[in-house]
Every structure is written in structure tokens, then in C-alpha cells.
Amino acid sequence: MTEPGQRRSGRAGAATIYDIAERAGVNPSTVSRALNHPGRVSAATEARIRQAADELDFHANPMARALPTGRTRTLALVLADVTNPVVFGLIRGAERAAAAAGYTLVIAESQESGAVEAATVERVAPAVDGIVLATSRLADDEIGAIAARKPVVTVNRGGSASANVSPDVEPGIAALVAHLESLGHRTLAFLAGPANSWTSTRRWDALFAAARRAGLHIVEIGPNAPTVEGGGDAYERCEASGATAVVAYNDLMAMGLIQAARAAGRRVPEDLSIVGFDDIFGAALITPALTTVRADLELAGEHAVTHLLALMGEGAAPADCDELATELVVRDSTGPAPTR
Amino acid sequence: MTEPGQRRSGRAGAATIYDIAERAGVNPSTVSRALNHPGRVSAATEARIRQAADELDFHANPMARALPTGRTRTLALVLADVTNPVVFGLIRGAERAAAAAGYTLVIAESQESGAVEAATVERVAPAVDGIVLATSRLADDEIGAIAARKPVVTVNRGGSASANVSPDVEPGIAALVAHLESLGHRTLAFLAGPANSWTSTRRWDALFAAARRAGLHIVEIGPNAPTVEGGGDAYERCEASGATAVVAYNDLMAMGLIQAARAAGRRVPEDLSIVGFDDIFGAALITPALTTVRADLELAGEHAVTHLLALMGEGAAPADCDELATELVVRDSTGPAPTR
DNA sequence: ACGAGTTTGGCAACCGGTTGACAACGGCGC
DNA sequence: GCGCCGTTGTCAACCGGTTGCCAAACTCGT
Q: How far is it, in rounded angstroms, from Cα A264 to Cα B74?
């Protein structure tokens, strides 16, 4: 006679709670309880079960667990461009916070396109418990629609549609304007990023306000691609603006601008002062080393994930976001304004 | 009388095949067939089902699907350090190839530690269909153990334990040695990476062989941390070696070395020529711009994923890996050897 | 009009866990 | 010795798909 209830005995695959149950002489559900609800079963049985689990090198199948609970212990981080150095810190911080909470991080790239981003989110959403949208190109209502289905935290993308963590640009920008003013600059140019970039708009607004307060002239040039090439391409328009100091939307553009300016025979900072944002890898390496407004993106990534977990009812929200203040890093790309 | 078989009617969550079945007046299994096995059901019913699915905005639950099939349509990419610019290309290439095949890519970081890497793989393995191990710190037998359970492809990590894709260092190194020799260098130093780095060993072996063939002297300095700091820390030993040209294990170290040399008042390349590997972002930005041996890591990432998919029986293996040949990029950090 | 052969769709088991309901059990006070 | 209560383990349903097997229905030739 054949044994009844014999599930795939001898199969190669991973051990299941049924294997453990058999080995420990208990019911599968008891195994589940012993492993997940400490105290629910007697200490003796729990010990027996744990030992059997160890011997069998048991690892619960995440999919099987996710099915009834609906929780996958996976978070998604959606980025515009993985190769942009700005996001390294974000990735690392988010990865660390996720791993610390026992979550796995899925990284998805939207390639700077709203349409791709929407499709990516659509694809990834059903398999994750929450989503971090970094520098999203999505419209407010699209974000709202996603947030209605899954917990969402945005990074560098304000609006009421969802929770948001963004470095506070004010301190850095205030310091920057003071720095430039003290160097004698009277006319500034802001090299804007992409048209629909919330961050670019925010930086421009803050810079504009600070410049006006200080009585400086300021113009906006853009929109531009937020890349080294985008910065280089805008060089002529910067010169045409008559500004003695150019603040680029990000370090990548500032670097492109430095290269274009030098290629055109202009000296930086003697003829033109250039400033970036983010303090990415390479900002200190380029000649002249870039003056920039730094934000601690690693911390931002960490906060975003902590926030997301809090939204999901896991752990508390991060204390205060004052640590996310930006600061000015003065290097060699800014100098006294040239005398006319 | 209450209707039988009524599953969670009216619940908010995502639509299921049961909802579709009800709406189209067929059995759930028919819905599954219509959606996944074209031709298995009549065109008329399939159309009715597809329309119902569209109206309900149906997306199959990945977990539920993964349970019986065992396939998650997810791949893992395990990296030593996400913030190392070398891996950007890898990530982007792998992401692209995975997305093209309808797979999701999970990125996990091992922080340059074999123990962390093993734990990471352990954690992530049950939820993915295959694993790409990039610049692994794992021992051959550990990799073998993983490969026995899941399809594995390594990048920049040879050995017979698993399939491997690595750029071919020979062409780039041959060109490099020829370049240095023509500039009059007679004594070379290689600034090694971490002790257990397969890539570092490989580069050293190839460089050593090429140098010997050319009749040049060569010494190895190391091991060192594969970072900017690691490169800077090794500066004194480079000087002490008497070499007129230093080849660093990677660009990061070369950059650190350049900074340290300049800080010590040495001119690059007049007093010392410096070469890197990988051609990362920033290599062209630093002053002097770095001469380096470039590998197309983006393509390597793509190949690795294609290879992995082939291992999983999905699509064919990539044609030939000749495209992965390295090439020398000559910039400004190499020059004629100083005359004694 | 009838039987053979082919579609087409339904039934039910299954993947591997989780969990509510419940029964068996043991200890306790009286 | 009895009833009561708290503990511990079992049963069975369920999450949302997939798939082997089978029967009904439909095709077509004769």
C-alpha cells in the first residue's frame, strides 16, 4: 500500500514546512506558527521544529508566503537614470535601510521618461509592498493614482499626492548667494534642468528669491538635458546672458559647462564662476574643482525607505528631516567677479 | 438562496482571473488558458475574455503565478559596491537586457565582503530565477554551491564553477605596454587591488606577461583597497619602487594616485605616468585626464543577462564575446619617461 | 443520420505557506 | 472526582494562479 499524503518526497528542491512537519512529527501549521509566532507553541515543540528546520536548511518560500499575506517584503526604487552619479547615494542609503528592515530592494529605471516610468511602475507595483519614486517625471495625478494602490514616497518631488522627502535647498542656496555676492558678482544665471523637473523648479525658485533679496540680477536659461552634454550645449547662451556666475541645475551640467568654457578659451573662475548642485563623485576631481551645493542623498534614500516602512505600518517615521539640509561646498570653480 | 462560489465579491484589490471568469461567463481555468496559451481556446471566447480583462484592468499576480510554476521572472544582480562608478554600465546593460526579456532586475550589494555576499545571495536566491554575480568575493566552491541551485553567471570572475563573462584584457594591455614602451618607460609598477580579486590577478598576470615579452621591468604593489583612498595611500610605495609608470588596478585608484602625486609636488605625466582600468565616469574629467584601459561594461552586463537567460532555457546564448575586447584610451596622464 | 475525430471548456488538484476555529489536553481549585 | 480555564496542536479553508485529464460539443466524411 502506498503512503497517503506524501508530497513530492525525495524531490531535489528546497525544504518546505511539510518536510519539517514530518521530521518533527507535527502538523505543518504548527511549523508555521512555531517559526512566525513565538510563544504560540510550547518551547519544547518549537525547539524541535527549529532544529528540524536547521537540519533541512529551511528557507520559507517568499512567493508562497506572499500569496496569503499579500506582503512580499520587497520595495521598489524607481530612478530616472541609474548611471547618473547623483543616484548612487540614494541607492546605497535606500539599500541599507531596506536590508536593515529585512526588505529586498528592486531598482527600476525610467530613463528620464514619464511614459517609461509609468510602465515600469505598472510592471513592478504588483510585486512590491511599497515604492520610492526618485526624481519622478510623473504628473501629480499619476503619482496620486499609484499612491492610492501602494504606499509611495517620493524623493525630490514635492506635491500633496504623496509623502515626500527632499533635501532642504534653502540653507545651501542662501550660503551660495552670500558667497557669490561677497565675490562681487552682480548678475547670475541659472542653467535649468528638464522642463518638468520639480527639483529644477525648486532650485530656481529658491535661488531667484535669494538673489532678489540680495539685490542681484538673475536670469534663467533652459530647459536643458541634465547631463554633461546638456551643460556644454548651453555654454553660448550663458555667455550671451552677461552673467559673471552661472549656477547649473546639477553637477553634471556644471561639469559640461566648465569643459565647454575652457574649450572656448575662457578661464574658470577668473572669467566665469560656475556652481553645481549635489556634490557628485567627480566634482572634486575636475579642474577646477567644482563649488557645489551638497545634499546628503544617502541619508535621503535612507529616510525615504524609513518613511515608506512607516507608511506601511512598520516602524516609526524618521524623526525630523533637519539633517537633510544642504550645504555649500566651496572649491575652485568660483572666484571674484571679473572687473568690466 | 446565496450564490455559491462567490469569492470576495466587491473587495477593493486588484482584479483576478475569477472576476474575469465571472464577467465573461467562463471558468477561471479558461481565462488562464486564453491569456497564456494563445490558440488553446476559441477566438471568440478569447476575445470576450481579453475584453473583460481590459475592462477590469487585469494584471496577473506575479506571486500567485510563481507559486505553481516556480518561475518569478526576476533576476538578481549582486555587486560588491553600488557606488563604484565601474558598475553603472553593468547595471544599465543588465537592466536593459532583463527588461527586454520581460524580467525584473533586483540589485543587491555585498559591500566588498564575502560573508555579506553569501548572506545576500542566500536571502535573494529563493525569489529569483537566476543570479548575476559581478566581481564576486566568493570562493569557487561557494559559487559552485549557488550554481547548483540556481542558474548563475559571473562577471569578471573566472573559474569553472559557473558560466562567466569578462572583458578580454589582452588587447588593451598589449596596447598599453606598447604605448608605455614607445614613451621610453623601462620600469613599470602595478598597483594591485584587493587580495582576493580575480580581476586584479588577471590584470596583473596579463600585464606581467606583456611587460616581460617587451623586456620591461615590472613590480607589483599591493594589495590595496580598490578606492580613491586606496590609490592615494599607495603613492609612497610607488615612488619607492623606482617605476616611471604606474598601472593601477582601476581608475578609482589611479585617480587617488594622481591626487597624491600632485599633492606631493610631482607632475603627472612629466615625472610619473599613471594609467587606470575601466574608463569610468570622471576619468576624462580629472586633470590630467586619465589614460585608461576601457572595457564596455554595459555590454558585459547585457551579455551576462543574455547568457543567464540562455542558461534558463530562454533565448539563445549571445553570439561571441569578441565585442568585449578592451581598448586603450590614451589621454593626458601618460607621457615620455623622465630622463634620469 | 451516424460514428470518428477534433475542438473547446470545466473540474479539481496543486504550488507552499497563513490563519481562524476548534478540540484535546493538562492543571487547578473546590 | 468534577468542572473550568488556559495552553497547545490540528483541521481546513484560502491566497490566485496553472495544468492534467476528461467530457461535452462540434466538425466532417460517408
A: 48
